[in-house]
């Protein structure tokens, strides 16, 4: 090294270069050292600004600093009592006295089933909190609570037990902490987590070897709701789902029925469609409202223009796929929904007899519409010169129900009438409707995206003038009807594509 320096300094130019390099290294080191010193000073100032309140390395069960959400003396006493009660240090006669009204209603056998049941509640907001509180007060002694969210000030208009002191704490722990003051013997398994398809097996799994006796779905996110209900349906778990309580105000319109019959609710509609794509079309009881929107009633609030200006709307939510608009909620309605789902769970677990007001059965109507569609396809095949005997259409009764109820909302696309309905092709086929690619079968090339809903009389006229005649739909109907038909058929195309992808 010394020999290299001697040779380098022997030349004047080399001396200058060496001096420049050494100076650059010194200056660079000084700058980096100064920046590092400034960072250290800033960190020290920041640490000094934090109040010295307890051990800063300790975190609470809420994931906060040890001094945050400190329990009150009453909370401490309740927590201590609950800890003893869960270990059996609580007089069973006192528990039975507290549950006495339920005991005489359900009998000892029914109450015993309830006390030994394990119930999972997914979603602990307005609906889920009231359901949880009702189940705990009624005798359920093992509950798993799943919710990723925290209590906010806006939660207090509908949450069952949250107080101002709970704002900022996870909803699952808020419920546990408050309900321990009412039913200290209840074992709460709190999961401050987002429910999802990938985590469903663990979140809906057993508790100390006991499989769940009932699952309550109080989720307001469609993808999570569909994942939960699909998992329960495929794994034969008893479940009841709460549909949307937002924008509802009439308690007399709240019903319990099969998911296939729930109407007039956007959340229910989207859930049904996605479940159908998974092959689940019925068999899930739901609580829903038949209340219809109307002038002067609350609606989903539009997103302000300034929010659009901030960038992609999908990036404004707390989590991906979660809504960014405010859903108006009258605080009483989630409470009613929550109490109804809890009531259903109690009756199911205890075996108490119950029979709900049935929804209007429309299976006969679907059969009739399917028969009319079959006859129309045979007539069209005959018009094209193809054999019409024994042809089959690729539309089932379930598809008819989906088209009539979900897509066209039980109304004619032309007149808006809701009686004497039929399904008919919208456009005249340019080629033969018979599938010639499948030897030995006479299937028609018909899919849901080809069909629209009309009254029988309108369908007969449409068949005569469009399917067998020379007119186009644009010549018969105004632009509103044409636009609506195209939008609905495109919607059916997306549904069929989704179903095909899932089946594939």
From TrEMBL:
THIF-type NAD/FAD binding fold domain: residues covered: 101-357
MF annotations from Gene Ontology: ATP binding; tRNA threonylcarbamoyladenosine dehydratase; ubiquitin-like modifier activating enzyme activity
SUPFAM superfamilies (UniProt xref): Activating enzymes of the ubiquitin-like proteins
Regions that span the bilayer: 12-34
CDD domains attached to this UniProt entry: YgdL_like
Any one GO BP annotation for this protein: cyclic threonylcarbamoyladenosine biosynthetic process
The entry's keywords: ATP-binding, Ligase, Membrane, Mitochondrion, Mitochondrion outer membrane, Nucleotide-binding, Transmembrane, Transmembrane helix
Membrane topology term: Multi-pass membrane protein
Cell compartments where the protein resides: Mitochondrion outer membrane
Keyword Nucleotide-binding: yes
Gene Ontology, cellular component aspect: mitochondrial outer membrane
Presence of keyword Acetylation: no
Function text: Catalyzes the ATP-dependent dehydration of threonylcarbamoyladenosine at position 37 (t(6)A37) to form cyclic t(6)A37 (ct(6)A37) in tRNAs that read codons beginning with adenine.
Family membership: Belongs to the HesA/MoeB/ThiF family.
PANTHER family with a match to the protein in the record: TRNA THREONYLCARBAMOYLADENOSINE DEHYDRATASE (PTHR43267), TRNA THREONYLCARBAMOYLADENOSINE DEHYDRATASE 1-RELATED (PTHR43267:SF2)
Entry protein name: THIF-type NAD/FAD binding fold domain-containing protein
């Amino acid at each position: 090294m010394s020999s290299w320096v001697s040779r380098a300094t022997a030349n004047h130019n080399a001396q200058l270069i060496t001096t420049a390099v050494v100076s650059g290294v010194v200056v660079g080191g000084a700058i980096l050292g100064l920046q590092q010193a400034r960072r250290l000073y800033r960190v020290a100032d920041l640490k000094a600004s934090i109040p010295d309140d307890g051990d800063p390395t300790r975190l609470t069960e809420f994931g906060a600093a040890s001094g945050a959400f400190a329990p009150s003396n009453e909370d401490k006493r309740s927590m201590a009592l609950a800890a003893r009660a869960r270990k059996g240090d609580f007089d069973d006669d006192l528990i039975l006295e507290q549950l006495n009204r339920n005991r005489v209603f359900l009998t000892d056998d029914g109450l015993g089933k309830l006390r030994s049941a394990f119930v999972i509640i997914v979603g602990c907001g307005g609906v889920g909190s009231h359901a949880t509180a009702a189940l705990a007060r009624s005798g359920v002694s093992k509950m798993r609570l799943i919710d990723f969210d925290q209590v906010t000030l806006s939660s207090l208009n509908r949450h069952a037990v949250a107080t101002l002191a709970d704002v900022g704490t996870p909803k699952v722990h808020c419920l546990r902490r408050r309900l321990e003051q009412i039913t200290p013997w209840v074992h709460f398994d709190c999961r401050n987590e987002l429910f999802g398809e990938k985590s469903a097996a663990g979140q809906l799994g057993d508790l100390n070897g006991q499989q769940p006796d009932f699952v309550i779905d109080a989720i307001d996110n469609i993808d999570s709701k569909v994942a939960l209900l699909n998992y329960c349906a495929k794994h034969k778990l008893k479940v009841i789902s709460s549909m949307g309580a937002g924008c509802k105000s009439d308690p007399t319109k709240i019903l319990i029925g099969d998911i296939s019959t729930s109407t007039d609710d956007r959340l229910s509609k989207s859930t049904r469609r996605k479940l159908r794509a998974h092959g689940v079309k019925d068999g899930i009881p739901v609580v829903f409202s038949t209340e219809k929107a109307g002038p002067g009633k609350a609606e989903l609030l539009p997103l302000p223009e300034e929010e659009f200006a901030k960038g992609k709307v999908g990036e404004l939510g707390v989590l991906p796929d979660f809504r960014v608009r405010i859903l108006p909620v009258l605080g009483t309605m989630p409470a009613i929904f929550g109490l109804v789902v809890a009531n259903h769970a109690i009756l199911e677990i205890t075996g108490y007899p119950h029979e709900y007001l049935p929804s209007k059965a429309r299976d006969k109507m679907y059969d009739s519409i399917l028969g009319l569609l079959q006859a129309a396809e045979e007539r069209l095949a005959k018009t094209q010169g193809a054999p019409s005997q024994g042809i089959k259409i690729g539309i089932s009764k379930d598809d008819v129900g989906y088209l009539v109820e979900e897509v066209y909302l039980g109304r004619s696309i032309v007149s808006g009438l809701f009686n004497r309905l039929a399904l008919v092709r919208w456009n005249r086929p340019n080629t033969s409707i018979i599938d010639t690619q499948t030897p030995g079968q006479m299937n028609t090339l018909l899919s849901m995206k080809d069909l629209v809903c009309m009254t029988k009389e309108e369908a007969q006229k449409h068949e005569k003038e469009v399917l067998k005649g020379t007119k186009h739909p644009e010549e018969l109907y105004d632009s509103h009807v044409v636009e609506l038909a195209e939008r609905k058929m495109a919607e059916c195309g997306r549904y069929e594509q989704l179903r095909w992808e899932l089946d594939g």
